[in-house]
Amino acid sequence: MTIETTINGVARRIESTPDTPLLWVLRDELGLSGTKFGCGRALCGACTVHVDDQPVRACAYPVRFAAGKRVRTIESIEESTVGKAVVEAWVEEEVVQCGWCQPGQCMSAAALLSEIPAPTDDDIDAAMSGNLCRCGTYVRIRKAIHAAAKGLEGNEGGEGR
Amino acid sequence: MSAPNTPTRTTRRGFLKAGASAGGGLLVAFSLGRTLSARPAASAAFEPNAFLRITADGAIRFYAKHDEMGQGIHTGLAIAVAEELEVDVSEIEVLPAPASPAFANLAFGVQGTGGSTSTWSSFDQMRLAGATARAMLIAAAAARWGVKPVECSARNGTVRSPDGSRSATYGALAEDAALVIVPEDVALKDRADFTRIGRPTPRVDSPAKVRGEALFSYDQRRPGMLTAMVERAPTFGGRVESFDGSAAEAVPGVVRVVQVPSGVAVIATGFWAAKKGREALQVAWNEGPGAHVDTASMRREFTKLAQRSGLVVRSDGDAASAFEGADQVLEALYEVPYMAHAPMEPLSCMVELKPDGGAHIVTGSQFLGVDHGAAAAVLGVEPERITFENSYLGGGFGRRASPVADFTVEAIQVAQAAPDLEAPIKTVWTREDDLKGGWYRPMWMNGMRAALKDGELVGWHHRIVGQSIATGTAFEGAMVRNGVDSTSVEGAADMPHGVPNLQVELTTTNNGVPVQWWRSVGHSNTAVAKECFLDECATALGKDGYAFRRDLLGGHPRLLAVLDRAAAESGWGTPLPPGVGRGISVHESFKGFSAHVVEASVVDGRPKVHRVVCAIDCGLVVNPDQVKAQMQGAAIFALSSGMAEITLTRGRVDQSNFDDFPLMRMHESPDVEVHLVDTGGEMGGIGEVGVPGVLPALCAALFEVTGERVRRFPFGDVAG
Fewer beta carbons within 10 Å, N or C terminal of chain B? Predict the structure, then answer.
């Protein structure tokens, strides 16, 4: 079937079997390999993207659900103020180890900060517990989210996400 | 400080000697002044050795011989090179080295990354590579200006004349430097003159990884590439009896269904078609003897074996008499389960067969040297016909260091089964394939006995039961001696504690479940058994766990230094809130020394870890923030190993994904503080050193809260 959707600001017509997860359209058909595969069952969060500003797990999200919606992937995260702050904080705090889960972590963090500009540790636990990191970078992820929030202070009324 | 790290004037001959003594293994030639066949030769490029390439436009490329799987080694190696080359790390483009003998691990004799060897085994080699390049650039400048090389200086990628009146960038000198004879005798900097080594340096791979631009094996794409997925036997050692691929071939996007030695491969245009095709396969299996493996019955068998004598690996004093004359004898069984590595990036390998019988292979491997040799054997060609490239590794933890090259060989066999497709074929694994696919950390049982007399620990008996990792692999000759796999007993047979009567025994089992090194290998078992049981001894003797270990570790200043530091930083002995306990451990592994203090409580019957304090002594530190990052990650990795297990029922692996194989998540994760200790000792390992001591320190903390010992992992419900 044909699905019309917007991916990273570009209108796309996608020919696909309707049950194909969005992840494999992004990775195999559009070459957007920044969105990662980790489990295939929405258990690890490595594939987190935004659909109409909400974080979703692309590995378990049939592409037909994206029809008529706006999809954002890690490749365009820096187009928003929040996303830019997240990327900067991630680099500044040296969060990354192997890096496979980090695009998904960043997408979840950006969604959190858009919703709650100054999250508490409990907010971070709630928003980030769906994103696994086998390297164990959680200590620094938490620090980076707080740092990004601090960096965004006073930025309200800016260009937004 | 020991000889290999002494920064002095090092001749090439001298370096080779130092490398051999430091690594203790086969040494492969350093290959100065050689151009790699795997890289295209270009004119005007200065290639002083296999690691560096400086072009006229000023670009500096560095080929990192160790694989970047999160441990920050690309950055660490680049720092060592940059220190001597006199450039900033940010000026260097770091690329993964392709398979070549020039990139052999000096500790193994074969190209690979593991055993926490990368930094200490390559440190001097990388410095020499940088220093040699710098000397040649200076020689080129001096010749150009008609001055003496010794009077010129190099800093920030530029050579200056003696009076400072003239200068030339490395790029401007590259063409001339390429004609300079490689010097035999190059001075390395004194440690006191380091300006980059030992200072926090940003990781070279962070920005690209955060933005999703970094290429991992799974991300590799080529025009016309196909994706393959293999249906493997449900039991280890099982074989295809017959299969019907017609329904699979009817799935849109499926190109071909082929049999391979490990099962049936579905080759398709992409992941989803391959997966749907695989689900439509009908395969009849000859399950083989693997169908009888059952971890519940293995536990019963191991328990019996732990009561019987094994091969004596170490015997100090007279353990038997010590136990006969003891005031009190303690006995306990400690067991750890099969454990999957579960790197976040599942395995993959892309193979493109070449008309000459060779191949171009791209994967994410910790063992390119082993893979390269195995690929040559499978393809029946000389290794030179195979170009083998690495990507970033989305986690490794030992899984990507296959001693039998399992996932690269299988990918080649898939390509060989469909040569007429004339396409690059990337064989990919799902999470289920990964968790059910074997090559686990072995399941181990430890029979522990201690003899206590006159308020002291006078006898220690540690009997280990489990499979051998190295037996049956190319590493058997080097690692298995007199029936003892050194990885089975490491951390026990070399126990440094002052116990006068000490015996360590090993009983090696075999059941066909493929096992492999998992971050910290044998230490992930022996340190847990040793440190937990030492805590039992301390309790029985009415001693404090910290003081008890101090008394036993006289003459081991590095262990004492980290133990003291962890105790001090944690506030050992100070009051804790009600319901919170504190435990301590200290252990040497992979030439590194670490101590841990864990604070924990029990919430809803489950352990809740509040705080981990780690002290680490790995000798000279190249990038301190990355040592801290490794210790933080290692603590979380170790804690996860108390939460999950791999079990088998009638030969089938019971777990399949992160729901039944849980890893620690953000809301469960404690704060991890890391303190670096430098006692001036020899350089050692980092990546694995932070794992072994974490679970025992947690168990000691839980005992303070519950009064009950945890002796089996994963944790079940804990009394609270």
Answer: N
Give residue A92's region: left, alpha or beta (phi > 0; psi -120 to 50): alpha
Q: Which of A78, A93, A100 should we substitute to test contact with B (largest number of B Cβ atoms within 10 Å)?
A: A100
Element (H, E) at B587: strand B581-589
| pLDDT for residue A92 is more than 80 | yes
State the count of interchain CB pairs (< 8 A) between A and B: 182
For position A155, what pLDDT does the model report?
64
Cβ atoms of B369 and B28 closer than 8 Å:
no
> Which of B219, B431, B633 minimises the CB distance to A38?
B431
pLDDT in tens, B339-398: 999 999 999 999 999 999 999 999 999 999 999 999 999 999 999 999 999 999 999 999
The DSSP code for B538 is H
pLDDT computed for residue B713 by the predictor: 96
Q: Is the pLDDT confidence value at B64 over 80?
A: yes
Maximal CA-CA distance, chain B: 83
The pTM score is 0.94
Q: Is B438 left (phi over 0), alpha (psi -120 to 50) or beta?
A: left
- B274-301 tens-digit pLDDT: 999 999 999 999 999 999 999 999 999 9
Per the CB < 8 A criterion, the answer to whether B521 and B554 are in contact is no
- Report yes or no: B505 and B313 within 8 Å, Cβ to Cβ: yes
- Among B199, B206, B210, pick the best mutation site for testing chain A contact (most A Cβ within 10 A): B210
How confident is the model at residue B510, as a pLDDT?
94
| Cα separations in angstroms, B683 against B4, B476, B623, B643 | 9, 27, 13, 33
- What is the 8-class DSSP label of residue B272? H
Nearby residues of B115 by Cβ (< 8 Å), 6 or more positions away: B107, B108, B517, B521, B590, B685, B688
DSSP string, B481-536: ETTEEHHHHTTTTT--S--SEEEEEEEEE--S--B---TTTTHHHHHHHHHHHHHH
| Cβ–Cβ under 8 Å, residues B444 and B338 | no
CA distance B25 to B7: 22
- Closest approach of chain B CAs to the CA of A26, in angstroms? 11
Angstrom distance (rounded) from CA B657 to CA B661: 6
Find, among B463, B506, B504, B154, the residue nearest to B307 by Cα.
Answer: B463
For the segment B664-676, the average pLDDT, to the nearest whole number, is: 98
- Residue B245, phi then psi, degrees to nearest 5: -100, 10
- Per the prediction, chain B carries an average pLDDT of 93
Band of pLDDT at residue A121, cut at 50, 70 and 90: very high
The pLDDT-based confidence of B654 (bands split at 50, 70, 90) is very high
Task: Convert B36-101 into a string of H (helix), E (strand) and C (coil).
Answer: CCCCCCCCCCECCECCEEECCCCCEEEEECCCCCCCCHHHHHHHHHHHHHCCCHHHEEEEECCCCH
Q: Give the phi and the psi of residue B489 in degrees, each rounded to 5.
A: -115, 0
Q: Cβ A33–B431 below 8 Å, yes or no?
A: no
